[in-house]
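Shift notes (night). Ran Cytochrome b while the centrifuge was going.
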Amino acid sequence: MRIRKNNHLIKHINSTLIDLPSPSNINYLWNFGSLLGLCFAIQLVTGIFLAMHYCGDIILAFKSIVHICRDVNYGFLLKSIHANGASLFFICVYIHIGKSLYYGGYQKKPIWFSGIIIFIVMMITAFIGYVLPWGQMSFWGATVITNFLSAIPYIGDDIVQWIWGGFSVNNATLGRFFSLHYLFPFVLASLILIHIVLIHSVGSSNPLGINSNFDKVPFHWYFAIKDIYGFFILIFILLFIVFFYTNTLGDPENFINANSLVTPVHIMPEWYFLFAYAILRSIPNKLGGVLALILSIVILFIIPFLHTNKFFSLTFRPIGKLLYWVFIANFILLTWLGSKPIENPYILISIISSLFYFFYFLFIIPIIGKLENYLFFQKVSV
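Came back to this:
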């Protein structure tokens, strides 16, 4: 006990994983923070081994993926874990963000802001990683998505050419994306470390959304055992997908070598970007669509300043709770719409869903917060 608390090296591990004071009422939804750490570790390890055999050249990139899957020992397993692990990573991220929106975790502003920055870097890392297999959807997805930046007045075309390294998605583009995809995980690791330090200094939120300093317990064993249980479930789900539904979350077009002369019937990014892609496509103006795409993420930064209710958590707010689940259903709808062709009725539904997405953050959160304050505290006073 004395060594654990006094040793210069061990005491930091002890304060982080063993004696860390944690709110006594947190539930399994708080597991997703540690599950994200596990997902990141899996992606980092498998990515390093895949990089040993990958060739960042447009002539050899697709062939190197085939080589990994067919010739490298356990290469197919590594590639499948890395590809499906990315999807599992984003599932955990969306649940983690959804939990913070429900329980008012965004009121811990330093933690919330650092988390959103991690989310943005994750999205960039995942996008450039999706280009590396150099399949049809990789090539055309990179061409279409990066070309949207040309809508920026005056400097848009220069930015696109700088990203491409030329006048089209080519060998220079692939080389840049490969180097950045290898570098960004280490940037993510630094941001995650900062995020964890902030959690320990500011304190974790809890389901009631109140100050929990008067009722805390040590992290180990109370919550460590829950995290270990979550680790086993996550690994089981990942392996189940890898062995039985390997390509369920991927696009069949990406199993065809990139061809700049053959355009896929329907170009779309990976499923975890589809909600933003649907918002982008819902606006006919190219610049307006790009701005809406950026705002769909940036708007998360202003949520703490839009909160008007005296309760941080939705646990005691029936109206806010109902509208929250309507928002979640709308988010899933946007994800589905992003995979559909640009035609009616999908265009009309996308416009309505996109408007509700922004309306929820900018109007529903502050207005319903004030309405519930009025209804609840008026009733209490009476």
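Residues 210 and 312 are 7 Å apart (CA to CA). The domain at 20-266 is CATH 1.20.810.10 (Cytochrome Bc1 Complex; Chain C).
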